[in-house]
Write a structure and sequence with these properties.
The structure holds two protein chains of two kinds.
Chain A (H helix, E strand, L loop, with lengths): L2 E5 L10 E8 L9 E7 L6 E6 L5 E3 L7 E6 L4 E6 L8 E8 L4 E2 L3 E3 L4
Antiparallel strand pairs in A: 1-2, 2-7, 3-4, 3-8, 4-5, 6-7, 8-9, 8-10
Chain B lengths: L3 E2 L3 E4 L5 E7 L10 E5 L6 E4 L13 E6 L4 E6 L8 E9 L2 E4 L3 E5 L1
Classes of the chains: A mainly beta, B mainly beta.
């Protein structure tokens, strides 16, 4: 059973960079059938896709966030990461990592707060 | 770019059947797979349908997914409703390699 676990700081200062890591267990991040994703959910609101990364490192980003997003993959650690630069209070959200391609799997999410 | 539109809320009685719609604004609903996610209060979204009509392991067969080209919509149907089904339900599909989410539907079982 594939499992994904988000980790990273729960508090990020305005204008700084948010950095999160997703650790994958029970499967290989190098599996060419799958893509690895970040999704976020502001408190009380709906879901917003941030971006996807393939094990090779190729990426697709939400056009509305593209200028501030960098995703990367570390195959040796079976992890992938998200960096979101120049954060504001509007970036406060639950951040989820997920896998798609066949059966989807999501992590439990981690709350990141950017104080106004 | 296109949008996925869901009803804001639906309600039904225990034991009954409910269907939640997800309408694509442009392009064919059949062009890209549709997923459905259930989100109970305080919990992460969990998939209940993937690739239009596939159920993840552990999801009861009371949950089913379908698409209808004539209405350009995807549908999530839940039969034998119980109070545990009360949740927000989100549809999701793809636009090129980008994800598109519906706005979510709050299901009340009362």
């Amino acid at each position: 059973q594939l499992q994904l676990q988000e980790s990273g700081p729960g508090l990020v200062r305005s204008s700084e960079t948010l950095s999160l890591t997703c650790t994958v267990s029970g499967g290989s991040i190098s599996d060419s059938r799958y893509y690895w994703d970040w999704i976020r959910q502001p408190p009380g609101k709906g879901l917003e896709w941030i971006g996807s990364i393939f094990y090779s490192g190729s990426t697709d980003y939400n056009p509305s966030l593209k200028s501030r997003v960098i995703m990367s993959v570390d195959r040796s650690k079976n992890q992938f990461s998200l960096r979101l630069t120049s954060v504001t209070a509007a970036d406060t959200a639950l951040y989820y990592c997920a896998k798609h391609g066949g059966h989807p799997y999501w992590g439990q999410g981690t709350l990141v707060t950017v104080p106004a | 770019n296109y949008m996925l539109t869901q009803p804001h809320s639906v309600s039904e009685s225990p034991g009954k059947t409910v269907t939640i719609s997800c309408t694509r604004s442009s392009g064919s609903i059949a062009s890209n797979y549709v997923q459905w996610f259930q989100q109970r209060p305080g919990s992460a979204p969990t998939p209940v349908i993937f690739e239009d009509n596939q159920r993840p392991s552990g999801v009861p067969d009371r949950f089913s997914g379908s698409i209808d080209s004539s209405s350009n919509s995807a549908f999530l149907t839940i039969s034998g409703l119980n109070t545990n089904d009360e949740a927000d339900y989100y549809c999701q599909s793809y636009d090129s390699n980008n994800w598109v989410f519906g706005g979510g539907t709050k299901l009340a079982v009362l």
